[in-house]
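[audit] Reproducing an earlier prediction to check determinism. Same input, same settings, fresh worker. If the tokens differ from the archived copy the diff job will pick it up downstream; this log only records the rerun itself.
[audit] input (73 residues):
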Amino acid sequence: VRAHNVALSDAAGEAAFHSNAFAPTNSLLPTAPRAGRVWGEGLVDTVAEVRVRTTTLDAFCAAAGVGAIDLLK
């Protein structure tokens, strides 16, 4: 297992990572207006936005020499 300090996206560059009150809802995507109905009010409130480096899966695999992916989490 290897951890990499990069976010996968549809483009290489930089993006805002939305850090929410309930960590499993953190995302590069902004929180949907009605998400609190599903997750619980207050849990999906964005508490911080962090700028993160992004890359595509294809570009990451090429740079890291990954020929095939067995498991992606």
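[audit] rerun output stored. Observation attached for the diff report: The two ends are 10 Å apart (CA to CA).
[audit] end
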